[in-house]
Amino acid sequence: MSRADRSSGSSGALTEHSAISLHEALGIVRPAVFTSVGGGGKTTVLFALAQEWAEAGGSGLSILTTTTRMTIPRAGRMMPLVLGRTESSRAGALADIDARGLRSAVVGVGRGDRERVLGIEPDWPRRAVDSGQASLVGVEADGSKGRPFKAPAEHEPVIPDGADVVCAVIGAGVLGRPLDERSVHRPEIAAQIAGAEIGDEVTPQLAATVLMSGIGGRKGVPESAQFVVLVAGVSRNLEMSRELAQMVDARAVIWDTDAGLIEVHDERA
Fold first, then answer.
1. Is 80 exceeded by the pLDDT of residue 229?
2. What range defines the domain where residue 50 resides?
3. Of 19, 128, 238, which Cα lies nearest the Cα of 107?
4. Is the whole model's pTM more than 0.85, yes or no?
């Protein structure tokens, strides 16, 4: 294993529980458009990033949004919500939020079924950052029907224009479980990518193959964007999570917000 290092962007395995922030672990340098795709944990990581930035006293708004549909978690329901179909209406509302000294907001064009926030245009997050409306726009770019692991359909994901970081998320709880609809969204596509059968065990190797595939976790990722894998909820399956992190040919973060655990693995150097 490569050497341990505490600095963002280092090579080797970074394995300190609280040595760095989640922003640093994911390679986010503000201002930025950050995009989460994949399985369970996409929304959680977006709200964790906004909370972390607010607690650190960082300047500039953190805007959380989606290009599809997003459910606001319980912890985020006190956050200001901006629903506007026009760019000018959103800009006015965000300027008011910023003037009030608030540091984050959720943005969408309206409400859909089950009170989910409806997605904005894919070109808006980049403009929001470039115009100074936000120092970070975090975008959820697909859905997984609550499953910890997924493979994308033909129409997914909807990655925003000019994304700086694209993060493929997998919930650690799927590792060791069968590749089926109870644990995996679109298991037949994941099986095809990995050369597996429905019902096979989701091993770290199988998961890594899907995550790194250009028709899997890397689907639609711009060449200009940094690609990161995030293994979420790792306290329930730490050993296999570390094994997966070491198998992907990308920066990999294993993370458990409840346990306060962040590790970064990058074996490419």
1. yes
2. 12-266
3. 128
4. yes
